[in-house]
C-alpha cells in the first residue's frame, strides 16, 4: 500500500482543519444487518471532525459485502453426494 501515514489534506468542510489518516470503526448497513468494520482507514478532520473514507478501502469493502462476490458461506455438497457410483471424483477438488 502507499505511504499515506503522515499525509494530511486540507478540510473542504471547515477550511481550517486538516484531514489526517485515522483508523476508525466503520459502520454500514447491509440488508438490515449492521456491519462494523474495525480499523477502517478514514480521513478525519482535526477541527470539525469530518470523515472521508478512503475510496480504495470503500471499494474493497463494497466488493467484500457484495452479495455476488466473496460469498463462500454456503456449505459444499459436491463431495458427499452420490451421483451414479461409477465416477467417484468427477470434479477434482483443486481448491484445497
Ligand atoms: Zn474540517
Rg on CA atoms, Å: 22 Å
Q: What's the total number of strands?
A: 4
Global outline: elongated
Would you state the CATH class of the domain at 11-65? Alpha Beta
SS-derived structural category? mainly beta
Q: Span from first to last CA?
A: 28 Å
Query: In DSSP terms, counting alpha (H) and pi (I) runs of 4 or more, how many helices?
Result: 1
In short:
The protein has 96 residues and is mainly beta. It is built from one helix and four strands.
What does this structure look like?
The chain has one helix at residues 55-65; strands at 8-10, 18-30, 33-45, 51-53. The protein has 96 residues and is mostly beta strands. The protein has a domain at 11-65: Ubiquitin-like (UB roll), CATH 3.10.20. Strands 1-2-3-4 form a 4-stranded antiparallel β-sheet. The chain starts with 7 loop residues before the first strand and ends in a 31-residue tail after the last helix. The model has no long low-confidence stretch (mean pLDDT 79). Residues 11, 13-14, 17, 45, 47-48, 50 line the site of zinc ion.
